[in-house]
Amino acid sequence: MKNAISWFEIPANDLARATTFYEKIFGVSLIAMDMDNIKMRMFPLDDMMNDVGGAVVDSGGFHKPSLTEGPLIYLNGNPDLQNVLDKVEAAGGKIMVPKTEISPEYGFMAVFIDTEGNRIGLHSVPQ
User: Fold this and answer.
1) Which of 2, 27, 33, 98 has CA atoms 20 to 30 A from the CA of 92?
2) Per-residue pLDDT tens for 37-87?
């Protein structure tokens, strides 16, 4: 198994607001993918077959943003998660756990609260 995670979905009550937030902090354009019962804004991938994918999702209530419940996912903050963390508050989020060293070999982590009220982790590994 190359990756333990193959796909993730971040709940959004206001998909436009959430899309703007993630595009600002990561400096990317999310890709619209709407179906009958779910609206998604997918994070871009370099290699769809081998990269871990995910999206910000409005499912009409199936997914619910939460500050305290459910799994905590860690998004890729390489090469230095501080670069992403520095944009969180200006984009409307809040830093919950600042950049913290896990260990020299496992790198750093941080946790923020997005505009939808989700707690989201960041991880980066020393280069």
Assistant:
1) 33
2) 899 999 999 987 788 999 999 988 888 899 988 889 999 999 999 999 999
Domain range summary for the chain, segments of one domain joined by +:
7-124
CA–CA distance, 17 with 22 (Å, rounded to integer):
9
Question: Exposed/middle/buried for 108, CB within 10 Å: 0-12, 13-18, 19+?
Answer: buried
Query: What CATH number does the domain located at 7-124 have?
Result: 3.10.180.10
Q: Based on the number of CB atoms within 10 Å of its own CB, is 77 exposed (0-12), middle (13-18) or buried (19 or more)?
A: buried
| Angle in degrees, CA 9, 51, 6, rounded to 5 | 45
CB atoms within 10 A of CB 119: 19
Q: Which two tokens stand for residue 89?
A: 């508050």
